[in-house]
């Protein structure tokens, strides 16, 4: 079993920054991707950013140029640096770990990010 624990959410003003961190523990093997999703009120969960291996990253168009994902494979951690925050970034952010070739998605408990205008 894999556990994901997030930290770093909170309240920020528009234009400000926050940094999210996620630590994975447990029986970790065959990691395909690690990343972040978010879910705003009344909305579906959506991909924010993900990383595969050491250098392959993927970002939602809405966060490109503002958010940066990074990963430390040795520590099984993934971070999301969020700059130039906007009110529309307000959501619960979830850490995700996906295995391969057996596709299993593990999720953290979520951390609230609120951006005030």
Description:
The protein is mainly beta and 117 residues long. It is 0% helix and 59% strand. The strands form 2 sheets. Strands 2, 4, 5, 6, 9, 10 and 11 form a 7-stranded mixed β-sheet that branches. A 4-stranded antiparallel β-sheet has the order 1-3-8-7, with no helix packed on it. A hairpin with a 5-residue loop joins strand 9 (91-99) and strand 10. The chain starts with a strand and ends with a strand. The mean pLDDT is 95.
Summed up:
This protein has strands at 2-7, 10-13, 18-26, 31-39, 46-52, 56-59, 67-72, 77-82, 91-99, 105-107, 111-116.
Q: Ranges with pLDDT <50 over ≥5 residues?
A: none
Task: Give me the count of strands.
Answer: 11
Main beta sheet strand tally, sense and closure = 7 strands, mixed
Relative strand content: over 45%
The dominant shape is globular
What is the averaged pLDDT score? 95
Number of helices: 0
Secondary structure class reads mainly beta
Helix content: under 10%
Element string (H = helix, E = strand): EEEEEEEEEEE
Instruction: Using the CA coordinates, give the radius of gyration.
Output: 14 Å
Cα distance spanning the termini: 40 Å
Topology diagram in text:
Elements: E1 2-7, E2 10-13, E3 18-26, E4 31-39, E5 46-52, E6 56-59, E7 67-72, E8 77-82, E9 91-99, E10 105-107, E11 111-116
Parallel strand pairs: 2-11
Antiparallel strand pairs: 1-3, 3-8, 4-5, 4-9, 5-6, 7-8, 9-10, 9-11
Name some characteristics of this structure:
117 residues; mainly beta; 7-stranded mixed β-sheet; 4-stranded antiparallel β-sheet; 11 strands; globular
